[in-house]
Design goal:
The protein is mainly α and 321 residues long. The chain contains eleven helices and two strands; from the N terminus they run ββααααααααααα. It has one domain (40-318): Mitochondrial carrier fold (Alpha/alpha barrel), CATH 1.50.40. The two termini are 18 Å apart. It is a multi-pass membrane protein.
Length: 321
Amino acid sequence: MFASVGLKVSTPAPAVSTSPIIRKKAKKRGLKLKIKIGNPHLRRLVSGAIAGAVSRTCVAPLETIRTHLMVGSNGDSMTEVFQTIMKTEGWTGLFRGNFVNVIRVAPSKAIELFAFDTAKKFLTPKADESSKTPFPPSLVAGALAGVSSTLCTYPLELIKTRLTIEKDVYDNFLHCLVKIVREEGPSELYRGLTPSLIGVVPYAATNYYAYDTLRKLYRKTFKQEEISNIATLLIGSAAGAISSTATFPLEVARKQMQAGAVGGRQVYKNVFHALYCIMEKEGIGGLYKGLGPSCIKLMPAAGISFMCYEACKKILVEAEE
């Protein structure tokens, strides 16, 4: 799968040609790292996994606060939730469930980005071909990517939510998994899957379509093919804000369903029942409770994820590419 290992540094003297897995080129601006992975599909998977792990760890405190606000525990504002967590658990409380989150997000993001790139490449017509779909390729590819990753990693998302909210009920990841399966049944691991799938299709489709469109607009506006890391960060953040705002009510319903009956909370029959009950109790504002911190969390998360992914793709290639 990988090529042989070697090291190549540019010097005036002639060098013997090799097929390295890691290359470092000495340039005037510094040392540029290149890691060669021969399989293009593996490059996408590795890049996606790294991007997911880095982005979610960076925004783990915001994810914890957002989850508490969605299910109505530990306070009604970002400041109140933050202060409560700091008093009761300290800094470690802000990263509660992050290890499980990284375990979930790394393969999820790898599958998602791999599926998106693969689907987009397949759906994008060549110069002499007609369109394969009436919708933009990036829109359809984004939806397919979201569905693929959700189906593969949903139980980990549910366990992460339980560990974050019910910290006194579960000791760790394995204990949470066993307790849910024994007391509530294996199907409980997929509670809230329907609203997740309903929510992930418009979210992922909007996110990737916005990202792809903004990248094209950037190239057209500045008349340059290369997009810097900072520009990628801003473009990804904007795409995350657009998609999050459009699909936030479904995200609230999903979190409420995932929390289950633990702690005396109401159990919802389906996503429509959850949406109806939330609106009846809290009004339309209840469907957007936590939107502010959600955007604060999702914008940098999306931006960092896309930036890391694009950066890794530049590193995990052959030097000739």
